[in-house]
Specification:
The complex is a heterodimer of chains A (111) and B (113). Chain A is an all-beta fold and 111 residues long. Chain A contains no helices and twelve strands. Chain B is globular. The chains are: A mainly beta (111), B mainly beta (113).
Chain lengths: 111, 113
């Protein structure tokens, strides 16, 4: 069985703070894929990143960065210098066969 | 805009009724997925179709069914609706199957009264 755990239900930060969203994916599969999606208040789900289980290199895209550590099954997401527009619910997903999601972390960035 | 379209945007219906949700995938995508998002259950995978064939099933109730047509659009049929079926239903598409990023449509908000 697979399980995605996002331990933080809600995070509140002040603009320009850095924030890290945690995600742990438990699976018996040796090959799997990890994803992050953003759900802004408008409701749509926006794809952010995909990572496969063989690639442990960190990835950076602008103010976003992701750290995958296979040994701890963690795939954490960091937003540097957060902005109000980053306020959203962020979902981590894991896929061996089916894509399953964690419960989401609601990030609130206050001005 | 993800390129995935869903209709209708909102649907209000009564218990016991049947509704059909429609999804058109991104151009060229062969896989279509359906998800249900509710406050108590979170974002749950329902079912996947790949090029017209059912590929994977998740927590889909027997009252629900789906299909993917030759033009690759998909429909999700919900019957004998209950209050608890009120949720946001998302369709997503991907180029192929496992490992490919899924692009989500805007969702259909279903309210059962």
């Amino acid at each position: 069985a697979q399980k995605v755990t996002q331990a933080q239900t809600e995070i509140s930060v002040v603009e320009k703070e850095d924030v890290t969203l945690d995600c742990v994916y438990e699976t018996r599969d040796t090959t799997y894929y990890l994803f992050w999606y953003k759900q802004p208040p408008s409701g749509e789900l926006v794809f952010l990143i995909r990572r496969n289980s063989f690639d442990e290199q960190n990835e950076i895209s602008g103010r976003y960065s992701w750290n995958f550590q296979k040994s701890t099954s963690s795939f954490n997401f960091t937003i540097t210098a957060s902005q109000v527009v980053d306020s959203a619910v962020y979902f981590c997903g894991g896929q061996g066969g089916k894509l399953i999601f964690g419960q989401g972390t609601e990030l609130s960035v206050k001005p | 805009d993800s390129g995935v379209t869903q209709t209708p945007k909102h649907l209000i219906t009564a218990t016991g009724q049947r509704v059909t949700l429609r999804c058109s995938p991104r151009s060229g995508d062969l896989s279509v997925y359906w998800y249900q998002q509710s406050l108590d259950q979170g974002l749950q995978f329902l079912i996947q179709y790949y090029n017209g064939e059912e590929r994977a099933k998740g927590n889909i109730l027997e009252r629900f069914s789906a299909q993917q047509f030759p033009d690759l659009h998909s429909e999700l049929n919900l019957s004998s609706l209950e209050l608890g079926d009120s949720a946001l239903y998302f369709c997503a598409s991907s180029a192929k199957g496992v490992g490919y990023e899924q692009y989500f449509g805007p969702g259909t908000r279903l309210t059962v009264t």
